[in-house]
Amino acid sequence: MAHGQRQVHVDRSARGGRRHRPGPARTTPSARDGVTAADDDRGAPEFDARAVPFALIAWAVVGFALAVDPRPVLVVVAAVAVCGALAGLVEGLRAHALRVVAVALFGVAVAVGALVRVDAVREHPAAELATRGAHVEIDAVVTSDPRRTGGGVFQVIGADLRVVRHHDAEVRGRGAIVVTSSDRGWADVGPGTVVRFDASLAAATRPDLTVAAARAPDAPRILAPPPWHHRAATALRERFAEACAAGLSADPAGLLPGLVVGDTSHLSVRVQRDFTAAGLSHLTAVSGANVSIVLGAVLLLVRVLGVPPRLGAVAAGIVLCAFVFVARPDPSVLRAAAMGAILLLALVVGRRRQALPALAVSVTALVIVRPELATSWGFALSVVATAGLIVVVPRCVERLRERGWPRALAEAVVVAVVAGVVTAPLIAAMSGTVSLVSMLANLLVAPVIAAVTIVGAITAVVAAVDVGAARYPAALAEYPLRWVVAVAEQAAVTKGAVLQVPTGLAGGLWTVAGLVATGAIVWWLLRAVFGVGVSGGVGGAWQDRVCEFSFLRAAPGIGTGIRHVGIRQRSSRAGRRRASRRARGLPRDRWGRRQREPGSGSRGDPGDPHAGR
């Protein structure tokens, strides 16, 4: 090509009806875009939401099938598929109709699978005995750790049914049951143990695949110990708890295992009650943060050792499976582990790693493989909170960063607010309470949670080798854990900290209405107090600013003053120049503001005729 000639690239995708904004074409990302070649996926949207409809339809279909009846769901989804197919005959609706048909047909397949599973539970012999309140002898495999209810009197565990004996009849068949007992002998029974016990059956009240509820008056008889992997996981949990007890005082010693592996068996009832009232109970449920720490540590180690990335991803996957056994496969653990596994798979095959598709695929797979998760409050809270962190938090953090907030402060504030807002309706529907101090409490403990979790993970690894040596890293978390306990205690005793609302759908709707009303009042007060006026008139172009409050620029600075006030800011030449600087990826100054290029028309520069206006 001759010198000075311009190479022209023709974008043939425009023939498909796409409209492109005018401007210089970009063929490869640059370093200032913050995108590397490995992560680049040209043409991909910021959030790839193609898998989201499939996750929503699978979750809705399975949840409704378990809670009500799968047959109406099957009819409705099939009708939608037929309507979509008929709409596909119309030329202008063909592309959209194909998407609707694909999602609806997927929903039909999921509904059929749910129908088969629900019918199998309803026709189980133990379900028929439960309706009569029969007294039976049961052989079962324990599937969960005992947990205290009603002031610690009852032990509630999950079990997988194997054999039911009633009088002289013996019925074999697998099914999930829930066992309650006041006998202390159940407290030492761990997952994987094969037990035999006498019980009276009752109909299951949970909207899941539970066959029956069993009330056992006596301790179980052990038929077989747990397999080796369950024994190893239980031993690690016990050694970790022993190291915490040796290196920490009472309340921190019970809290650290809960933060790291979700073990709340050593946490006092008072602390549990305070955490619930303060809206901090989610800290003792293993979630994505724990999985991120585990996977991040493994991937960092294999990189230091020079292991190839794909082998490192395989090693991280093995460690992830071991972590699931140690933390127990609770709903939040399964969600986080599924997302981690999908992201590791993307690393192995060399695909772009995106959180939203990973979440959608995880939800779809989990509700199909384990339908009972579709009606689990813990699973719903985990998914909703994760979706809020993926979709909302990055945008709001970037807005605050543009106004000079330090990244750590912006992330702490936004995460606490977003997590509290998106989960409040579910918590209200589940428990009938709304914590008015949860956002503040989460914001106060956020600076220490990550460090405490890392220290706890190190303690657990050391405890696997030497319990005596593990007490020393555990002691480092003493005062941070005391701070967390103190925040929960003060939040719980605050007068009016908990608001009572109806349970179920009514409570969730009331909470949503309250959040909307609160947001509107805050918005109106900001306009009134800070003098946000309405100007413009006919032809005035307005730029909506979501999650943007310009007066917050002054918060992290000292003596900077309130420079700008505005929730909706009219588009101006200065605003367009700032947007241009963001698009060109210009560096930021110490306050997070975009720097100007030399001679670009800063205030007082005679090269810009509009400077200073």
Task: Compute the number of strand runs.
Answer: 11
Compute the separation of the termini in Å: 46 Å
Helix content: 40-55%
What letter string, H or E per element, gives the SSE order? HHHHEEEEEEEHHHHHHHHHHEHHHEHEEH
Account of the protein in words:
The chain crosses the membrane at residues 51-67, 73-90, 97-116, 280-302, 309-327, 333-350, 377-397, 409-431, 443-469, 507-526. Residues 586-597 have a biased composition (Basic and acidic residues). This is ComEC/Rec2 family competence protein. By secondary structure, the chain is of the alpha+beta class. Among the domains are: 52-122; 125-226, Beta Barrel (OB fold (Dihydrolipoamide Acetyltransferase, E2P)); 232-375 and 449-504, no CATH class. Helix content is 53%, strand content 11%. It has 19 helices and 11 strands. It has a 5-stranded mixed beta barrel with strand order 1-3-4-6-5. The protein has a two-stranded antiparallel ribbon with strand order 8-9. Helix 6 (250-261) crosses helix 17, helix 7 crosses helix 17 (478-493) and helix 15 runs antiparallel to helix 17 (478-493). The longest helix is centred in the N-terminal third of the chain and has 29 residues, at 94-122. It is globular, with a radius of gyration of 28 Å.
Write the layout of secondary structure elements.
Elements: H1 52-67, H2 70-87, H3 94-122, H4 125-131, E1 135-142, E2 147-149, E3 154-166, E4 169-181, E5 194-203, E6 210-215, E7 221-224, H5 228-247, H6 250-261, H7 269-278, H8 288-304, H9 309-327, H10 331-349, H11 355-369, H12 377-391, H13 393-402, H14 407-431, E8 433-435, H15 438-465, H16 467-475, H17 478-493, E9 498-500, H18 504-529, E10 542-544, E11 568-570, H19 573-583
Membrane topology: Multi-pass membrane protein
Keywords: Cell membrane, Membrane, Transmembrane, Transmembrane helix
Biased composition (Basic and acidic residues): 586-597
